[in-house]
Every structure is written in structure tokens, then in C-alpha cells.
Design a protein that fits this description.
By secondary structure, the protein is of the alpha+beta class. It has a single domain, classed as Glutaredoxin, CATH 3.40.30. It is built from 4 helices and 4 strands. A two-stranded parallel sheet has the order 1-2. Strands 3-4 form a two-stranded antiparallel ribbon. Strand 1, helix 1 and strand 2 form a beta-alpha-beta unit. The longest helix is centred in the N-terminal third of the chain and has 12 residues. The protein starts with a strand and ends with a helix. 22% of the residues are buried.
Length: 79
Amino acid sequence: MYCTRSCPYCQRAERLLRRKKAKIEKIDLGGNQAAWNKMEKKTGRNTVPQIYIDDYHVGGFDDLTELDMSGKLDELLGC
């Protein structure tokens, strides 16, 4: 998960994923413009969080929440 420490949506995404017992690898972009540019190039987006489950790009917090509400998040996580 690409994130920054001060982002409330990153914190919410992390809480949701922890409730699902998901292993989270965080890439903190705070103050690292090169890493931010790399994330933008990889995801095509310029906001955080940007969440991956394995190689699947979920997107941001709203996308993660939508997957959870549809039940598809549990499938992706193998819950």
C-alpha cells in the first residue's frame, strides 16, 4: 500500500485491512518525490492510498471499501 503517515484515508484503509487480518506492506511516500513519481507511473493515479493485493491494483480507499461492501475483498484476501 502506497501511503503517507498523515493521510486519513491511508489510516482507514490500514484499519480495514488489519480487521481482515491482511498482511500489509506499506510504502511511505512522505517527503520522497521519486517514490511518489514511481507510484504515479505504476498506478496512473496521484493520490494515496494506492492499494495492491498481490499484483491486483485495488485503487484507493473508496475502491477498497466498495470491494469490501460487495464481498469481493474477502475473496481477494482469501478470507
